[in-house]
Design a protein that fits this description.
This protein has 116 residues and is mainly β. It has one domain. Helices cover 5% and strands 34% of the residues. It has one helix and eight strands. The protein has a six-stranded mixed β-sheet, with no helix packed on it. The protein has a two-stranded antiparallel ribbon with strand order 6-8.
Length: 116
């Protein structure tokens, strides 16, 4: 199963600055996105989609999962990000959700960084 997480508006620029963005080669660094909501049924290779500023921005393959006390979970990626979006507004949310759209609805999103 693929999952979806939200990058808060105030963290968007610092999240981009981490690196290993769409079309960039893997730097060799792993990045972790932590959130609450318990541990989902996901496996390495499943997609972790990113929502920010009301839009789906893309995904990266899940490399591994880390669970923490208190119901927090870390989704770890290692490059391979792809910029895609869907033709609907996606309001931000806390925690994670399973992907609710069909992958066939995804379109390339070359302007994924733009927040207007």
């Amino acid at each position: 199963m693929d999952i979806v997480v939200t990058v808060p508006k105030g963290q968007w620029e610092s999240w981009i600055a981490e690196g290993d963005l769409p079309s960039e080669p893997w730097s060799g660094t792993a990045y972790e996105f932590t959130t609450g909501g318990g541990v989902p049924s996901v496996w390495p290779g499943d997609r972790v989609y990113i929502v920010a500023h009301g839009r789906l921005r893309g995904y990266a393959p899940l490399a591994r999962l880390r669970s923490y006390d208190g119901g927090r979970v870390g989704f770890i990626r290692q490059g391979g990000a792809v910029a895609v979006t869907i033709q609907q507004e996606v309001r931000g949310f806390r925690g994670w959700r399973y992907r609710w759209w069909d992958r066939a609805d995804e379109k390339p999103f070359p302007d994924w960084r733009e927040v207007n």
